[in-house]
Amino acid sequence: MAPQCVQPTGEASRLTASKRVTNVFIQRQRQFNISLKHGNRDSEGIVEVKLVDQDEKMFICNDSWSITQANVACLDLGFKQGAHDIQGSFHFPEDLHTSATECLQVHCQGFESSLTECTFTKRKTNSNRGVAGVVCYTQDAGSSLARWDGTELEENKEETEILTANMDAERKQIKSLLPKLSCGVKRSGPTRRKRVVGGIPAQLGEFPWQVAIREDDKFSCGGIYIGGCWVLTAAHCVRVSKIHRYQIWVSLLDWIKPNPEITVHMANKIIIHENYNGATYQNDIALIELKKRQTQTDCVLPTTVPACVPWSPYLFTPNDKCIISGLGRERDNQKVYSLLWGEVHLIANCSKYYPGRFFEKEMICAGTDDGSIDACKGDSGGPLVCQDANNKTYIWGIVSWGENCGKPDFPGVYTKVANYFDWISHHVGRAVISQYNV
Q1: Cys bridge to 405: 17, 60, 161, 376, which one at CB 3.0-4.6 A?
Q2: pLDDT digits 0-9 by tens, 264-281
Q3: Identified catalytic residue from 38, 84, 114, 236
C-alpha cells in the first residue's frame, strides 16, 4: 500500500513531512536547559535557564522566586527531594550586574516536575540582587527541609517518611482544589502500535478529541475538541458568513460506513483570530462553539475527551515524536474515507525549507525523514498531538499548510498552539481548557 497522508484543509492547506532532521549539535542547542552556577557545590547556585528558542542562558528574576519554583527547579535537575532553601552563599561574578540585563520571571503551581511546565516572562534587571538561587536538598544539606509553604519539616523523622508523607500529601491537596477536568487521557480503548507507520486506520476511542468539519455535502477540515462546547481548528477552514453550513461530526471513523457512536453538532459561533493573514497563514487559528441542544445547559459529547491546551512553548522540543490524524487525501490525491493516523517528529526550524514564509513564533513543523507520514489536503484544522511524561496528550499544532504532500524535504507546517493559550482562554474561559487552571 502506498504511503498515505493525513490531510490539511482547503486548497491552500497542504501539510508535508520533512526529510532532514537538524544535526545533533543544533538539536542540543535548541533544547530547554537548566543549570546552577556560582555555588559551593553541584546542588546549589544561581539558577540559569536556556529556553528552546534562544541561544543564550538567562537568570531567573529573584522577585518571582519562592520555595515553590525552587522545588520544581531541583526536581528538574534530578534532586528528587526538592529544594532545601532559596538562600545560599553564592559567589556572584563582579560583572554580573553589567552582563545580565534581562532575567526570566517564572510562575509554577508547585506540582510540576520540570520548569518546562511553568510559564516564563522576560524582565529587565541590572543588579545581582535581582537574580534567584537555590540550595537543592541532599542528605548532607542539613537536618531540616523546607516545605512548599515555606515551613520546615520535623527533624526527627526518617527522610523517606518526610518526603513521601508530606510532599505527596501537599501535591494531592493542591490538585484537590483544582477543577476536576480530565484532558488528554483516553477513557479506554486499544493501544496504538508504537512504530513509525503511515496511514493506519484509527479505532474507536483512539483519538477522542478528533472531530471532522463538514461543509454542505463534503468533509473539508478537521478540528480538535478542547472541552465544554469548544472546538479548535484552522482559520482558513471556516468563514463566519458560512456558519449555517457547517456540521461538526464527533467520533467519526469512516464516512462511507458510519459507526453508531457518531454525533453531529451545528455551529453556534465562530471566532477567527483577529490577526489571521490568509496570504501568509500567520495566526491560522479559529474557535467553533457548538450549539447546545434544546433543554440542555451544556454540550453533551459522551465519547469525547478534550485534548490539553499547552500553556508553555517548552513542553516539547525538536525531534520529539508526535501524532497527526485526519480524513485527508493520500499523497497521490486519492480520497481517504477513514480516519488515519501516523507518527512524525518535530523539526527545529523550517525556515530553510520555506525561506521568508515560515514564522517561528506562530508556526511549527513536523514530518518524517522520507516524507511517508504527512498531512494533506482535507486534513487542515486537524491535530498534531504530543504526549508528556505523564501520558497527557496536548494539542501541540493545528494542520495549517505545506507543499508537495508526502515528499521529503517538504515538512508540514502547523499553527503553534502554545503561542495562543491566552487568546484561547480569553474566549472560552481558562477553566475550560487548562489542565491545572493556571
Answers
A1: 376
A2: 999 999 999 999 999 999
A3: 236
